[in-house]
């Protein structure tokens, strides 16, 4: 009888037995967590809280960029002084927690560079902005986490 079983049939049987074994162990030891996970996924549908949080962060970033354009760049007094603009940016962004997230920091820096060039004709580099955010007297440093 063993000679009639092919290797492929053998491996299929082994895989099915392993799947059944691990399902039993999973349900026996982690039953409540599995049920919670399944029902949580079913109740959430296609949206998840991670997606909602990132969408809120993106909306906050857009609001910050819009605020900076109108509050700083369009109201900049002539002649433009880069250090004054950088101090104003630092003060305006002191409570913005997005500076602690690398992707948002890069996006914000790019938008500031673009807005400064378009609106004021001022050339600001990413290195200057990063040194402004990383300076010790930056008041939002504690709220950002480092």
Automatic annotation (TrEMBL):
This is Uncharacterized protein. It comes from the Bacteria. The keyword Transmembrane applies. Keywords: Membrane, Transmembrane, Transmembrane helix. The chain crosses the membrane at residues 12-31.
